[in-house]
Specification:
Ubiquitin-like (UB roll); five-stranded mixed β-sheet; globular
């Protein structure tokens, strides 16, 4: 099984972790792990962005070699919703 090592961080850069995971892991798994491990607000929606490419990784997208390279930074960003 193929693996990739990336740095996961929060948008405000207060939390950061280097992790190695299977290429079959999907964006939603990474977001949920960050919310759980870092006690992020669970009533907020998040998106996962590869800071090198500037592209969002959808919750169902696997970490393919085309999408994520070793050592890249994946940022967990809150989805901001405009006020009512």
């Amino acid at each position: 099984m193929s693996e990739v090592t990336v740095i996961i961080r929060t948008a405000d850069q207060t939390r950061k972790a280097e992790v190695t995971m299977a290429r079959t892991s999907v964006g939603g798994d990474i977001i949920q792990a960050a919310v759980d491990n870092w006690a992020l607000p669970s009533d907020t929606d998040y998106t996962l962005v590869n800071t090198s490419s500037g592209k969002a990784i959808s919750p169902s997208q696997a970490l393919s070699e085309e999408l994520v390279q070793n050592g890249q930074i994946l940022e967990v960003q809150p989805v901001l919703v405009a006020g009512c």
